[in-house]
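Minimal example, chain plus coenzyme A.
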Amino acid sequence: MGLTLPSGLTIETGRLTLRLVSEADLPELLEINGDDETTRYLPYASWRGMADAQEWFDRALNRHAAGEAGQFVIVLRETGRVVGSCLLFHFDEPSRRAEIGYVLGRQHWGAGYMLEAGKALVDFAFGPAGLRRLEAEIDPRNTASSRLLERLGFVKEGLLRERWDNKGEVSDSGLYGLLRGDWQPSRAPLAPHS
Ligand SMILES: CC(C)(COP(=O)(O)OP(=O)(O)OC[C@H]1O[C@@H](n2cnc3c(N)ncnc32)[C@H](O)[C@@H]1OP(=O)(O)O)[C@@H](O)C(=O)NCCC(=O)NCCS
């Protein structure tokens, strides 16, 4: 038994809908992940075409099937467009812990979307998904990401020096944690999923 997510799972926030990724989302996700400024601190090279997008999608499906991860897209309801994505991954069932990750298209930065999506993802993780601890690992130079994590209530728990050699650059990792006991749900509990 892993992280089992019903295929129709959607989470609504004030402006956004989070739903599990589907193949039809790939062109919009390519626009987002094809931008070098957006992927600057992400642990992968910018996607260069639909083959990269498809490879990523196949990995996401495999991780869903294995119960290891849940990959969501973030849709701006006003336009119906995919503006970003977020995920729970490295799911560890005995410890009821997972890691979170997120990316937003550059033209949508700074509008509070990821804080809104992040709160909903954390509500889901500590509510229906039954998790107890969330983790995040970021490049400490990524101030937008560290600020976002702080706003979500994550605590910086450590710094691993020169952990990555990524895209020709060695970088440190800031490790963050959030416990269910520290989390104030941002709204009424979501219904448990079957
Ligand atoms: C990190 C990222 C998802 C933030 O998304 P966002 O929707 O722009 O963030 P929000 O608007 O919800 O802001 C959340 C907080 O971070 C702050 N913030 C956002 N961008 C910032 C920046 N460039 N510098 C400093 N603070 C920033 C906001 O001011 C807000 O804090 P506040 O409420 O105290 O003012 C977005 O910058 C992104 O996609 N970056 C590229 C991908 C990436 O690096 N992902 C993380 C990998 S670990």
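The longest strand covers residues 81-92. The helical segments are 26-33, 50-65, 113-126, 143-152.
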